[in-house]
Specification:
Elements (H helix, E strand, L loop, with lengths): L4 H5 L1 H4 L20 E12 L1 E4 L2 E4 L6 E15 L2 E6 L2 E6 L8 E3 L1 E13 L2 E12 L18 E11 L4 E12 L2 E2 L5 E3 L2 E3 L3 E2 L4 E12 L2 E12 L18 E11 L4 E14 L5 E11 L5
Antiparallel strand pairs: 1-4, 1-20, 2-3, 4-5, 4-6, 5-8, 6-7, 8-9, 9-10, 10-11, 11-16, 12-15, 13-14, 16-17, 17-18, 18-19, 19-20
């Protein structure tokens, strides 16, 4: 969980859901010497997908479902500097056909979030992240793969305004670079060309989001819209399987709630892909358990 961005980009094919508590896309921080341990279960499924711009079904897949278990920890190094680490276990399955689902640990992610400015309710944040695969899963088996097995690096700027009533507005924009991967074939077609190699260059990606919500004491609730897109890439060929070089784009709407009166809390998220390119039109949800740890010594 690229922590957030990488998984969301391929989420309509891979369906990974992310628990949100002091995450790389919000303005919430753990105080110095405290940490929040979160464990979430997520599920996402789709029956229709966009093959290039054509929306269609595939009777050899039926309904595609991805499930995940995501342990994550966010720690306050200082009041303005947080570190977030996560590692999801992901499984995929199809309700029809003979494509075998995959399962296993996916990518270890590390994020650093720093509050650059905070005055009069307005704050600005610089966020950086990186991820790397931790298991030998197969990336060239979309949509049944559990990931793309690429190392990623992400830079993000985030702005937040919070009114004294508890209402807030958050916006962010990101750019993510992805490393080349190796596939189990001697040659492949991409971007209308034949490449006689087992090395595949993945398109880099961008994401942006706007969130409006309420946060006060034990309660947080928000609605959001997100846009995730590759900056280049090709399209799924007619009646073919997707490939890691595909230009995946999607718009996601959803809602998130959290209740944490003391050290233990709960959160939940729902999201739906309203439109896309080379992705599935998925509906997903996640539920998580939060536990705050105080008086840590680093």
């Amino acid at each position: 969980m690229k922590l957030k961005f990488y998984l969301v980009l391929v989420g309509s094919f891979l369906g990974v859901q992310i628990t949100k508590a002091q995450m790389p896309h919000d303005a919430i921080y753990m105080p110095k010497s405290t940490a929040c341990l979160a464990v979430s279960y997520g599920s996402s499924s789709w029956k229709e997908y966009w093959e290039n711009t054509l929306k269609r079904e595939n009777l050899n897949i039926g309904t595609h479902t991805t499930q995940s278990v995501m342990p994550m920890i966010a720690a306050g190094i200082t009041d303005k500097l947080n570190v977030i680490v996560g590692l999801p276990y992901v499984s995929t399955k199809a309700s029809a056909g003979n494509l075998m689902g995959q399962k296993g640990l996916q990518d270890l992610s590390l994020w650093v979030k720093y509050k650059m400015f905070d005055d009069g309710g307005l704050s600005l944040h610089a966020i950086g992240g990186a991820s790397t695969p931790v298991s030998d899963y197969v990336p060239d088996f979309l949509p049944m793969s559990i990931g793309l097995k690429s190392k990623t690096a992400t830079g993000r700027l985030l702005a937040n305004y919070q009114h004294k009533s508890g209402l807030y507005l958050t916006a962010h924009g990101s750019y993510s670079g992805r490393s080349k991967i190796k596939v189990d074939r001697d040659a492949y077609l991409a971007n209308g060309k034949m490449y006689n190699t087992d090395e595949v260059a993945l398109p880099n990606t961008t994401d942006a989001a706007i969130r409006i919500g309420y946060l006060k004491k034990a309660i947080q609730a928000e609605a959001f819209i997100e846009r995730n897109a590759c900056v280049s890439g090709d399209n799924i060929r007619r009646n073919d399987m997707p490939f890691p070089t595909n230009n995946m784009r999607m718009t996601i709407v959803g809602a998130y709630v959290k209740f944490q009166p003391k050290n233990i809390g709960l959160n939940a998220r729902v999201n739906y892909v309203t439109n896309g390119l080379n992705v599935g039109q998925s509906f997903g949800y996640s539920v998580g358990l939060l536990f705050q740890i105080n008086n840590l010594k680093f």
